[in-house]
Amino acid sequence: MSHFFAKLSREQMKTYNQKLILRLLKEHGTLSKAQLSEFSQLTVPAVTGFIKTLCDNKLIEEVGPTKTSRGRFPSLFRLKTDNIHVLAVTIATSHVKASIIDLNGQIQKIYQASLPPNSAPDQAMEYVRKLIDQCQHDRYHILGLGIGVHGIVDIDEGLLVFPPQLSWRSYPIVEELKKSYSYPILVDNDCNAMAIGERWFGSAKEGQTSVTLNVDYGIGAGIYMNNSVFRGSHHAAGQIGHTTIEENGPTCPCGNDGCLEMFASEPSILRHLTSHISSGVASIAKDIAGDVQSIRINHLYDAALLNDELSCSLISRAGTLTGKGVSGLINILNPDRIILTGGLLRSEDTFFEPFKKAILDHSIKSNTRHLEVLKSNLGEHRDVIGAASLWIDKLFNSQVTLESLNIQSTKVNS
After folding, report:
1. Is the dihedral of CA 283, 273, 380, 208 positive or negative?
2. H helices present in 95-189, as ranges
3. Residue 310: other Cβ atoms inside 10 A
4. Helical ranges in 142-260 per DSSP H
5. Strands (E), 48-103
6. Strand order in 30-32's β-sheet?
7. Strand, helix or coil at 30?
8. Structural contact between residues 311 and 300, judged by C-beta atoms closer than 8 angstroms
9. Cβ(108)–Cβ(100) under 8 Å?
10. Is the dihedral of CA 241, 247, 251, 253 positive or negative?
11. How far apart are alpha carbons 283 and 287 in whole angstroms?
């Protein structure tokens, strides 16, 4: 520990301690100066100075005294979560969302719109702008705009390098949105964003290394380790859905043949379902939809929840294949937790149990002895919570100074 602090400059040490106070209040809710001093190992005068700075920046507030068994009642402090918010946007293959989210990860406003099939980038951006404007974001103090989108994202240049399902290439999303909005903007792969969301608000609060696996239209992984997302040398880590599991398999939108996504994603399961039904296999999904051509992903899940044999078998097989794919990641990273998220959660245990079993069967036993395999508990809007967490992580990250953030520059309209 002393070796770590020896490397910090005076300014870095100040930032570290400011963020430590913030994190303690986020973790405990309300604390007195004495409690903050005890938990942080800082002197009370030092804590007092940091509290003043954080109060001046309207990040924390005094909430009155607490009763003690003797002596004066000390004042308590807490995060001022109603003052600063994040504007969050997610772009999926079929829809876009925009939301206002507070520092506790609570959604204040959310809007969603369906995208026309094969939407071009500029067309999709029109939908994004309309939803952002619907959020009436000028009424809030916005820390920044966070964007989550699938595929490979260059976070430094603000480029959507390769979102396979959208078929876009090197789209300058940050540059385009800055033409309309003055907020600082962060963009990242949606799985990375959700991994950060799980770190702050979900199932990854404990432990050192977690993998958040998102399985719906595609399959991707967000890897959180050493207090940050692991993105790889060129921002392309976590593309587990494009692992080849069958050499002569169908061609994936990424250009390779036999990718995991072609067997275990929602569209691939749906294709297999309709193909089997068309060849004469019975399924409740057809009865629910009315005919084969009308079957959609919600019909698959509805049929599975009614114990439809074909639907359950296809979802179960997808869980097994995905678990096998993830086992390689477990053998390499040895994480504390695997957190499953995405549309396949709608099938309840039909996907999850085979997924978990395959992980335990195909991973090195020493790597699964203390491994927890969990379902995300962030709900259906976990994607926008993840996008907002790009900025929340910045706020609580010990390496990012308060001066570099958009804390005081934005005025809130009454």
Report:
1. positive
2. 121-134, 173-178
3. 20
4. 173-178, 190-201
5. 60-65, 75-79, 84-91, 95-102
6. 30-32, 75-79, 60-65
7. strand
8. yes
9. yes
10. positive
11. 7
Of 20, 28, 39, give the one whose Cα is nearest residue 63: 28
Instruction: Report the distance separating Cα 331 and Cα 82, nearest Å.
Output: 42
From CA 345, how far away is CA 326, in angstroms rounded? 17
Q: Which residues pair with 219 in a beta bridge?
A: 215
Strand partners, 187: 147
Structure tokens at 126: 């029109």
Pairing of strands 95-102, 337-341: unpaired
pTM: 0.89
Taking the CB of residue 71, how many other CB atoms lie within 10 A of it?
A: 6
- At residue 246's C-alpha, the angle toward residues 243 and 248, to 5°, is 120
Length of the chain: 414
Measured CA to CA, the distance from residue 29 to residue 36 in angstroms comes to: 11
Q: What is the pLDDT along the chain (414 residues), one digit of tens a residue?
A: 445 555 668 888 999 999 999 999 988 889 999 999 999 999 999 999 999 999 988 899 998 776 555 556 788 999 988 889 999 999 998 899 999 999 989 999 999 999 998 889 999 999 999 999 999 888 889 999 999 998 889 999 999 998 877 878 899 999 999 999 999 999 999 999 999 999 999 988 877 899 999 999 889 999 999 888 999 888 889 889 998 988 888 888 888 889 999 999 999 999 999 999 999 999 999 999 999 999 999 999 999 999 999 999 999 999 999 999 999 999 999 999 999 999 999 998 999 999 999 999 999 999 999 999 999 999 889 999 999 999 999 998 877 888 888 775 444 443
List, in order, residues 6 or more apart from 211 with CB less than 8 Å away: 195, 221, 222, 223, 224, 326, 329, 330, 333, 335, 337, 338, 339
d(CA 347, CA 111): 25
Q: DSSP string of 58-71? A: TSEEEEEE---SSS
Quick check: 149 and 168 in contact, CB under 8 A?
no
Q: Both tokens of residue 176?
A: 């385009």
